[in-house]
Specification:
- There is one protein chain.
- The protein has one domain.
- It has a 5-stranded antiparallel β-sheet, with no helix packed on it.
- It has strands at about 1-5, 15-20, 30-35, 40-45, 50-55.
- It starts with a strand and ends in a 10-residue tail after the last strand.
- The chain is built from no helices and 5 strands.
- With about 60 residues, it is mostly beta strands.
- The model has no long low-confidence stretch (mean pLDDT about 80).
């Protein structure tokens, strides 16, 4: 799902970021992930800086 960055707020742990820069064209993708489970949460790209891609899905939790 694509969203404008200014409309997105996240709760919980502060995300970590991995930056990949393409050797072909030099633009970067910033992948933001959970530091606890390493699940990818959001991504941004240099080409469209105003857009934030949100990864959607369900994670089954173990009963406590």
């Amino acid at each position: 799902m694509r969203c404008k960055k200014e409309t997105v707020t996240l709760n919980g742990a502060e995300l970590k970021t991995y930056v990949y820069t393409s050797p072909e064209h030099g633009r970067s993708i910033n992948v933001n992930f959970c530091p606890i489970c390493a699940a990818t949460v959001t991504a941004t790209v240099d080409r469209f800086p105003e857009i934030q891609v949100m990864m959607l899905g369900l994670q089954r939790r173990r009963p406590t």
